[in-house]
Write a structure and sequence with these properties.
The protein is α/β, with parallel strands linked by helices. The chain has 3 domains: 11-48 and 240-266; 52-228, Bacterial polysaccharide co-polymerase-like (2-Layer Sandwich); 273-504, 3-Layer(aba) Sandwich (Rossmann fold), CATH 3.40.50.300. It contains 17 helices and 14 strands. A hairpin with a 5-residue loop joins strand 4 and strand 5 (121-128). The chain is rod-shaped, with a radius of gyration of 50 Å.
């Protein structure tokens, strides 16, 4: 694998992996498209009538004529001969021998004549649903072509012979007149001149007689020969089942790939951590699996305290590790935990992350800043009568957060009663002072805020905290949703340090880049478990964070 300068996969490798992941995820689309195309092609190809093709090869000989003063051999123009072999005149001769009762033009529809490369051979092919007729058709056209060509040569020789005969007759008449003048003339000198003219005419007539003998067509005149007779075809030439179905399979696969990438382009669903990181522009710090038993419980479940060695608890410890590492990069004390919509698990994440940090000996304050639908207090069995609302309106002090039973490092401040003006309270100076105080008295302040897209409260608080953590239910969000969330947070210049995927179901989501097996980590394939869950073979907790 090509490696980039920083030691990770190169851009080309990542792009290739992304393409392969699309194909793997949409493999059923590719399979269905290929199956449909092959089935359609098979339906039509197996309904076609088999066609047999026979082939005869004809050698075209050069012809010569003596119509001129010297005998010249004429090389055949094979393109002209190919046209002649597929002409209506040749088809008429072929029908006379075949006796099929078919019009010449209909015969020509099944005929193919070509020229063998770099030769003087015509290849005559004839196709027919019956193998025997295909053989007879090819052989019949080969004979008909030779018959027609021989007739043409004979006609040319006869035409030339007729012209020579007429000239010879004119010279004979002229010789007779000269001989008469010689006999009647008494002048010796004139008679000698006439005799010379007569002798010249005799010589010319002799030459013409020689030409006439050369222009007489011989009985065995050959204008070509069939060098490869047509044989009876043993198998149909059409349809070619392997080639047709193979071509259909290739077309189906490429069509399926195109359809898969088009659907991927139009599909707005989230399918992998890379897409979350791309559209939210923040790393995925942890992937919390769906806790099956929580659906049978009436009270909220704290997996970090009740199921200390489960995959979900390890996911929150992995989130703790990522958060601690981010804190090392900058001074991060107050962390806002929010989501795009309600019901994605932001309160669950706040409670379990708070316990995980407290288990690492960190002093943590959890603040329920969701003044519209508070739920954080229910995870710890606390009353919501007094809380953040009382702090903001001055009825309670900043030290109102009290320790959670069983853990002195973890303190909780419920939201209090639901006010009529939550936005105004969160934008107040009292809220800013409270955040500053809690940041001084605790290692981490975790703020459970309303969803970003449901109210402006989250954006208001995001501008006042050190970092923002976004909780994502993969099945409830889309790429466009994440981009909208990021734009909302960017407007207040929030520091988004990462995301947490909640209710992660390994059988439905992220099947390629991350996987989950009982007793193993979520892995990205190279042995690392960045942003994943790490559980030892026997469930022992990894305490390196």
């Amino acid at each position: 694998m090509e490696v980039a300068e920083h030691g990770g996969p190169s851009v080309e490798d990542r792009a290739l992996s992304a393409y392969l992941e699309v194909v793997r995820r949409r493999k059923w689309v590719v399979f269905a498209a290929a199956l449909v195309v092959v089935a359609t092609a098979g339906f039509f190809v197996f309904r076609q009538v088999p066609i047999y093709t026979a082939q005869a090869e004809v050698f075209v000989k050069s012809t010569s004529t003596s119509a001129t003063s010297s005998s010249v051999a004429l090389a055949p123009n094979l393109e002209t001969e190919r046209k002649l072999a597929s002409s209506t005149r040749v088809a008429l001769l072929a029908e006379e021998s075949l006796q099929w009762g078919v019009a010449p033009k209909r015969l020509l529809e099944d005929l193919t004549v070509s020229v063998a490369a770099n030769t003087e051979i015509l290849v005559i092919e004839y196709s027919h649903p019956q193998a025997r007729k295909a053989q007879r058709g090819a052989q019949g056209f080969a004979h008909a072509y030779l018959q027609y060509r021989r007739a043409q040569v004979v006609d040319d020789l006869l035409a030339s012979s007729e012209a020579v005969q007429q000239r010879s007759e004119r010279l004979n008449a002229q010789l007779a007149r000269v001989n008469a003048e010689v006999a009647a003339n008494t002048d010796a000198d004139e008679k000698a001149v006439l005799q010379v003219e007569a002798n010249s005419l005799v010589s010319q007539i002799a030459i013409l007689q020689q030409k006439l003998s050369e222009l007489t067509p011989p009985e065995d005149l050959s204008v070509g020969q069939i060098v490869v007779p047509a044989e009876l075809p043993s198998a149909p030439s059409s349809p070619n089942y392997p080639v047709t179905l193979g071509l259909a399979l290739c077309i189906g696969i490429f069509s399926g790939l195109g359809l898969a990438f088009v659907r991927e382009r139009l599909d707005d669903r989230l399918t992998g951590p890379n897409e979350i990181e791309t559209h939210l522009r923040a790393p995925v710090l942890a992937m919390v699996p769906r806790v099956r038993k929580s659906s049978r419980r009436k009270e909220p479940l704290l997996v970090t305290s009740m199921e200390g060695y489960s995959a979900a608890s390890e996911a929150y410890r992995s989130l703790r590790t990522g958060l601690l590492f981010s804190s090392m990069q900058g001074d991060i004390k107050s962390i806002l935990i929010t989501s795009a919509h309600a019901g994605e698990g932001k309160s669950t994440t706040t409670a379990n992350l708070g316990i995980a940090l407290a288990q690492a000996d960190k002093n943590v304050i959890m603040v329920s800043a969701d003044l519209r639908k508070p739920r954080l207090h229910s995870f710890f069995g606390r009353s919501n009568e007094t809380g953040l609302l009382d702090v903001l309106i001055g009825d309670a002090g900043l030290e109102q957060a009290v320790p959670v039973r069983g853990n002195e490092n973890l303190r909780l401040l419920p939201s209090g009663r639901v006010p009529v003006n939550p936005t105004e309270l969160l934008t107040s100076h009292a809220m800013e002072e409270a955040l500053q105080y809690w940041s001084r008295t605790a290692d981490y302040v975790l703020i459970d805020a309303p969803p970003v897209l449901a109210a402006s409260d989250a954006a208001i608080l995001a501008a006042r905290v050190d970092a923002v953590l976004v909780v994502i239910d993969v099945e409830a969000n889309t790429k466009g949703t994440l981009e909208h969330v990021r734009r909302q947070l960017d407007q207040v210049q929030a520091n988004v340090i990462g995301a947490v995927t909640n209710k992660f179901d390994p059988s439905k989501t992220f099947p390629y880049s991350y996987y989950y097996r009982e007793g193993y980590a979520y892995s990205n394939g190279n042995g690392s478990s960045s942003g994943g869950v790490s559980v030892g073979a026997k469930g022992r907790e990894d305490r390196r964070d």
